[in-house]
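Please think about what follows:
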Amino acid sequence: MRPQITVGLPMFCDTKTAMRLLCLSNGHGEDGIGLRILQALQRQSDAIQLAALPIVGEGKSYQTQGIPIIGPVQTMPSGGFIYMDGRQFARDLQGGLLQLTRMQLKTIRDWVQSDGFVLAVGDIVPLLFAWWSGTNYAFVGTAKSEYYLRDEQGWLPRQSWFEQLERWSGSVYLPWERWLMKHPHCQAVFPRDRLTSMVLQKWAIPTQDLGNPMMDSLDPKGLIFSNEPDLTGDRLTFVLLPGSRLPEAYENWRIILQAVSALLMAFGNQRQLLFLGAIAPQLDPAPLKQSLESYGWRLASTTQSMVTFTQYRAQIVLTQTGFADCLHQADFSLAMAGTATEQFVGLGKPVITFAGVGPQFTFRFAEAQTRLLGPSVVLADHPSRVVQIVQSLLQDPDRLQLIQANGIKRMGSPGAADRIADYLVQRLNVKGR
């Protein structure tokens, strides 16, 4: 597959006074975070020319919002998860990874010839690309958190000596990553949480604790998913998050439906059950509907924004446009996703998750996610275990209160994109609106 090249015009035309900023990101979730910061920059200043170069994928988030992409982009077989499996890396190499990387690095060097600032979003890959540019840069660290290794009380217990070795350098960020963040050209580092910021400050890294942009743009639209009133106040609402990666999400959906069936058997005669399938726009709903029918669900209604299935007193609603509403209305999440799971936790709610077959959502990924998000996530060893977990949570209000506080602590409050943009406008000394 040949790299796709999309070149657009600058967002602002006043080239005499405009500051040029290039956003590098490496994944769908990272693209979304980068886009939120760029949109915040647009709101705060009309003196910055914005551009993007997504290192992984085609950067459709940028394209749909009019942010010009300056160089070659291409979707790789691994979808960006080569660190999960060496075979995925081999497939990416066969798919032209090295050629794409060379072209992207050359594009960045060519871009900085006219001066400019680079904003890297993600992990060491965009950070390394930013350093390679030779110009000043800032880093939004979305992939790593000290919570993977420790919490506020100290190091987390790890079973094997190899797992314990992860803490050898004193931080989840390794020495070469810290060197890139401490480089004279690095003007600011924006970690994803306060604990990580505090640890990085020990090495005099220019850390700014401004929050996590993942929690931005989650305002609900006021969608109503069920016409059945909750007359007795006993309804339980679950959001189902199978992830966005193809074709993995379809297999994740089938695993989640096993848990849904277990809940239906346990609670179907006691409570109203509402399941909200928050389906990524890039997924084809047809396989999801077929899986529902194979589990005994019957199509009840279809509207422009949602499709409703019923079984006994329960409903499953599929929507590809009501993501934030699903998160806000749900009491629990059955999740096999990355960013979406973290956002639900950030709203102070409990997640039950299950290991899949990958390449992203494997047991290794799910176990790491439980360390990242702490008591807010329970990793079940089988979908049928969901009943026991839900019953335990319902009977423990103190634990639910802990989960609520934990989500805010680990994911931060909304508004991080605006705070980061404001810092960059001040740092770049450009004119505000």
